[in-house]
Amino acid sequence: MPDYDLQAALDTDYYAVFEGIPGTDRAAWERAREFVEEALPVMNGHWDRAEYPVHLVKRMGELNLLADGIEVPGLEPMSPLAAGLVNMEVSRGDGSLGTVVAVQGGLALRSIAFHGSPEQKDRWLGPLARGEELGSFALTEPDHGSDSVSLETTARRDGGEWVLDGEKKWIGNGASGGVTVVWARDEDGNVRGFLVEQDTPGYRAEVIEGKGSLRAIHQARIRLEGVRIPEANVLPGARRFKDTSRVLVATRLGVAWSALGHATAAYEAALAYAQQRVQFGQRLAKFQLVQDRLSQMLAELTSMQLHCVHLAGLDAEGRMRPTQASMAKYHNTRKARFIASTARDLLGGNGILLENHVIRHMMDIESIHTYEGTESVQALLIGRDVTGVGAFV
Predict the structure, then answer these.
(1) pLDDT tens digit string along 211-238?
(2) Which fold has domain 135-239?
């Protein structure tokens, strides 16, 4: 049986989109490449066994790959472009590790950076960014996914404390130790953010089993039963759902970058396979139908790159609008699904083997296509923006 080398990075850049990026941004990308080269040989096994390699989270922290563009004292800051390139590269290696960046840096760290007190920032930003502590973001509930604004978890005052009750679901890192940013509705109906350390009495979390996607990161179902936290653990800057949305919008572009990483891995594996696999006496790359498929995939991949790099520039200038991030997420996850499906088909039976990497990316794309707002929700956000008419109900 022949062996195929399908995991090497080919640096696909047909339009030279990345050719002129600044040296500091490229250095961040190179650190992410270094990490992927370390992690990739073991990720198929972790994914297959549904094991969460927490030690790799610490390694990402050591390489300054978790901050997602948030300024953290003691760490070199990353521009929006550098943060995107890191997200892309880590996701090119593995979707579960890419989701660690999204959860740890994109959501948990950003919530504290945007809305935390000086004391909360001193306590958590450094440890989370360095991977010394795990962080999670608990918004989604069993009955509230796309309509997360309707969350039912409650927070009430009792003397000098707050008492939280409710349930959360699909919470990355929610059962892995560390701190959870819990979003709950107070007695006045406002959505507030609370820092809950996972060993707090009444916080019960169980790992969701049986996933066919993102199997190498643990997501949890959480029950909050009379969880008491002090006033010092309330995020002072988070007082309404609009504040929650600010965090989500900032990370939505990161999902587009992640989709680009998955699609790059699938396309490059398909190209390498076509150049190595022999059928009917010649390499697949010589067949017209194969070249047509590779051309389709490359065209879509190039469009994904253009979306990401252009919006990273707008973000750096403070000019990116929320619905532009929605458009990038909407476009890129759709195209990533197409590219991964086409790559899987091009590899034939070999496409379903983990050793060839494509099937893992294909399954993981299904998760990023859903989280941070489903395709339908993004379409409605964009549609409302261009028509001026809301169609959510």
Answers:
(1) 999 999 999 999 999 999 999 999 999 9
(2) Butyryl-CoA Dehydrogenase, subunit A; domain 2 (2.40.110)
